[in-house]
Write a structure and sequence with these properties.
By secondary structure, the chain is mostly helical. 63% of the residues lie in helices and 1% in strands. It has one domain. A hairpin with a 2-residue loop joins strand 1 and strand 2 (250-251). Helix 3 packs antiparallel against helix 4 (80-94), helix 8 (197-218) packs across helix 14 (323-342) and helix 9 runs parallel beside helix 12.
Length: 388
């Protein structure tokens, strides 16, 4: 919005206000987007928490959960709505809104946030921790992602650079090279895996839905989910910037042998906004939490990370980068399958962060150690850029 008004507008303010030329630079707009989202969060959360307390809008707690969580009943929830507001407004202010990827990732984030809002509302309205039936929640998530990716992977009017790579798989630690036009077979099969468009739509939809629900499962302790979300957002910020970077005449993606996605560079502002809004939220969500994220935040942020994985061509790398979220989801699947097949539980309680709580770990200990693991996984993901 500000970028379009001050720099791209027909009146071209930047021509006579030279200092506005700084808006050309993505890193400057990333910093501004991050600061805008951060200050919005810090400014709004005290008011939000006070309003929610006065209206007695609080968290419902599972009866079969750890006993230490019973005291959290009634803590204001749906705080993720302000994260969502801060991210959307900051992205709209500082991004180039002519970039279709910006609109698409915002559509996923806002759409999943709306699904989460309905789920949270039903939990509060009926004082029931189950909320929206899982099958309906999953159906809406799949439909929304599928519609968006039908456009992304079927529309041939998008820029040529995207059309060249959009149906190809990028594998971690494996070089991604564009094949010679006259002899594509010159590359090894694992360097040139092309999926049918319909299959890629299904695959991308799975990535987003899975990541959204994995983040939702992780959001069970004070600050547990937002920490890895911020780490993932910061890493995707770097990956998106590199995917569209040309430096001193050198095409950096070609040099690093990763997919070249010039449109992805504008998504760095979106990632910066998530990081900034996350800092503001964490100030009030850190143990003991004054406000909880709710599904409106966890589903939206998980969908955003899944969308970033698809738009930057890091679908498989997201398994490493989002390893904490994957672990949480796998622990739930393992617990359910084991109990249904054998009648026995693998963990004391799933998701796995509750398992460690029931083993006697203090809540802050679980949270900080999961954050540390997330940072380590992010470093491995970034290291894959050179280990090819």
């Amino acid at each position: 919005m500000l970028y379009d008004w001050l720099y791209n507008d027909v009146r071209n303010y930047a021509e006579w206000l030279r200092f506005l030329n700084v808006l050309r630079y993505v890193p400057f707009r990333v910093i501004m987007g991050m600061l805008t989202a951060m200050f919005l969060s810090f400014a709004m959360y005290p008011w939000f928490i006070d309003r929610m307390r006065k209206k007695n809008v609080g968290q419902t707690v599972r009866d079969d959960g750890p006993q230490t969580h019973f005291c959290k009943k009634g803590t204001p929830t749906m705080g993720g709505a302000l994260v969502l507001f801060s991210v959307v407004l900051s992205t709209a202010l500082w991004s180039d809104l002519d970039n279709p990827f910006v609109w698409l990732v915002l559509a996923i984030t806002v759409g999943y946030g709306l699904i989460g809002f309905i789920d949270d509302y039903l939990k509060i309205r009926y004082a029931d921790s189950r909320g929206m039936p899982g099958r309906f929640k999953l159906l809406f998530q799949v439909l929304l992602a599928a519609v968006i990716f039908l456009y992304v992977f079927m529309d041939n009017s998008l820029p040529a650079e995207w059309l060249q790579v959009r149906h190809r798989l990028a594998l971690p630690f494996v070089a991604f090279d564009n094949p010679p036009v006259d002899n594509p077979g010159q590359l090894a099969w694992f360097q040139y895996i092309v999926l049918p468009p319909w299959f890629y739509v299904a695959f991308a939809t799975f990535v987003v839905v899975a990541m959204s629900n994995a983040v939702n499962l992780t959001d069970g302790l004070d600050g547990l989910a937002i920490g890895p979300v911020m780490v993932n957002a910061a890493t995707y910020l770097l990956l998106a910037y590199i995917a569209g970077l040309t430096l001193f005449g050198i095409n950096i993606p070609e040099y690093l042998r990763i997919p070249s996605v010039p449109m992805a560079s504008e998504l760095t502002i979106f990632c910066g906004a998530i990081f900034g809004a996350g800092i503001g939220f964490l100030w009030f969500n850190t143990f003991p939490a004054q406000v909880f994220m709710g599904d409106v935040g966890s589903l939206a942020l998980g969908g955003a990370l899944g969308g970033m994985a698809v738009f930057t061509k890091n679908e498989f790398l997201s398994v490493i980068l989002g390893g904490i979220f994957v672990l949480e989801a796998v622990s739930v699947i393992t617990q359910v399958v084991s109990f249904k097949l054998t009648g026995k539980r693998v963990f004391r309680m799933a998701p796995i962060h509750h398992h460690f709580e029931l083993k006697g770990w203090a809540e802050p200990k679980v949270i900080v150690r999961f954050w540390i693991i997330s940072i380590m996984l992010a470093l491995v993901a970034l290291g894959s850029l050179k280990l090819r």
